[in-house]
Write a structure and sequence with these properties.
The protein is mainly α. The protein has 9 helices and no strands.
Length: about 240
């Protein structure tokens, strides 16, 4: 038998171990988002310092010179306002992806990143398309839909949190005659990419915990009624 002090020690050790695991998971979840955000800010600062414009590395649909944009486009922004508007949602959604979908997060991130930009190169209007907004829409769509599909309490709560924060993004997938400089095509392609990958990978990564009740094979169906049966038999004997 373990002493009371031993029980308290093991419980405390378990709590510390759990805290360390969560802390490590949290730190790991912000490595890629921090790196991406750092890169896009360094690129923009480089453009400002050296007075250059790297917009020519964006996506130009159906043009060979626009193929570089499939890789470079999400890292480029037209100005600081554009960059700032994308920084926070990109970091928050990426961190959520890597924290809650740890096992599959990296490939989901890469697939959404590349698929969105390939589709933009194929179908978007003739113009230079730059910015991380397509990626943001993809992450938003994946996290929201995936949480619903998996019926996992924490992931469904995350879905609701995401829709609360960024639900207004949905209006960005429609053409806007008053803001023609906005690439609504990137938004739409990102949204569709995230939706498709949410369905495709619904059986991978975190899943709803299914509880199973194990019955004792030797247990009689009338086990719980036995005391009452015996009591009735005793009464009958007394009467007789």
């Amino acid at each position: 038998m373990l002493s009371k002090a031993s029980v308290i020690y093991f419980r405390f050790a378990k709590i510390i171990l759990t805290m360390n695991t969560e802390k490590r998971k949290l730190i790991n979840s912000i490595i890629v988002p921090t790196a991406i955000v750092l890169i896009i800010w360094l690129i923009k600062l480089g453009e400002i310092i050296f007075n250059i414009n790297l917009g020519f590395l964006g996506i130009y649909p159906l043009k060979a010179e626009g193929l570089w944009g499939i890789i470079c486009s999400p890292l480029l922004h037209s100005d600081l306002n554009h960059l700032y508007a994308n920084t926070i949602p990109l970091f928050v959604l990426s961190a959520a992806l890597f924290y809650f979908y740890e096992e599959i997060a990296l490939k989901i991130f890469i697939y959404i990143y590349l698929t969105t930009d390939v589709w933009v190169w194929i179908i978007a209007r003739a113009a230079w398309h730059i910015g991380a907004s397509g990626l943001i829409y993809g992450l938003f769509s994946f996290i929201f839909v995936s949480g619903i599909l998996r019926k996992h309490n924490r992931l469904m709560a995350l879905s609701m949190f995401v829709i609360f924060l960024y639900g207004g993004l949905i209006w960005g997938i429609f053409p806007n005659n008053f803001q023609q400089e906005i690439s609504w095509e990137s938004h739409l392609m990102g949204l569709i990419a995230g939706l498709i990958f949410a369905f495709y990978f619904k059986d991978e990564g975190p899943q709803k915990v299914e509880y199973q009740w194990v019955e004792d094979e030797n247990e009689d169906d009338d086990y719980y009624m036995q005391p009452y049966v015996e009591e009735e038999e005793e009464k009958n004997k007394e009467v007789n």
